[in-house]
Amino acid sequence: MKFTNFKAAFAAGVFALASGTAAFAAETLKWAHVYEEGSSYHQVALWAADEIKSRTDGRVEIQVFPASSLGKEVEINEGLGLGSVDIIYTGPSFVERYYGPIAISDYPFIMRGYDHWLSYRGSDLFAELSEGYHDATGNQVLGLVYYGQRHVTSNKPILTPADMEGLKIRVPNSPLMLMFPNAVGANPTPMAFSEVYLALQQGVVDAQENPLPTIKFKKFYEVQSNINLTGHILNSLLTIASDDALARVGDDEAVLREVLDAAALKASEEIRQSEEDLVSWFEEQGIAVNVVDKKPFQDAVLPMLTGDGVPYTMDHFKRLGEL
């Protein structure tokens, strides 16, 4: 009897030890993106990882993989469904292929500025579109990050739509990014983000378009002499996590959601401030920063925004305009 009791006690002790080990084992999530280590997006992701680890007492750890180290943007979007990544930054233009309406904010000249973007970020419209994306994919939008106003860089001034006729311009590999260059007669060339610098340097493309902070940290100004302030798209990033990842963190999901939303706003404020500071910085580097009359560009694009083929409804278009 004593031996039997000893065996039972020993087994119970082993079980308790195993259970305790499991209880304190961290759930590790992979956060992938295509931006450089020095970018605000990456630095804020590292901040969020530290914050989540601290607030969950180590139960949730996040490993952040920058600079396309786990794949280019199309691949990390696919990776959410495959389970190879758990969290990503991605542009609405890439998400469009899964659920079109959520890309509305990235269409040319559709956002009026940062304050309009903030209103959209907190709106019922954005919440509805995020839910529509979740229904379509099983992935959840946990934050909207301000990426900045996109401007065209080139080796000549671009002041009117006519200056873009025939211009071979790199764009991200997404359908909506074709609208602006097509409207002004340019030759859009989809290309992965990681390949752009070399393509500009070698003359494979003549131009590219990105916000000022991106132009700086990707060093495109080293191989382009002009920044033309077209401001043709006010770009965002979505912070997205898979349902599987959220299920794995269990009761800590609320902490994850709260921190990732705070991180999105933190990065947004840093990028906005950087935009305001960078014009003079580029001029100090000897780059020509050209002020552009946007109206002719807007007039060229407008028929496409309300025509056939856009993925959003005219109700979406109206509600966004009224925010």
TrEMBL record:
GO terms for cellular component: outer membrane-bounded periplasmic space. It comes from the Bacteria. Residues 1-25 form the signal peptide. CDD domains: PBP2_TRAP_Siap. It is found in: Periplasm. Keywords: Periplasm, Signal, Transport. Its main location: periplasm. Pfam families: DctP. InterPro entries: DctP_fam, TRAP_DctP, TRAP_DctP_sf. One of its GO terms (biological process) is transmembrane transport. PANTHER family: PTHR33376, SIALIC ACID-BINDING PERIPLASMIC PROTEIN SIAP (PTHR33376:SF4). Belongs to the bacterial solute-binding protein 7 family. This is Sialic acid TRAP transporter substrate-binding protein SiaP. It comes from Halocynthiibacter halioticoli.
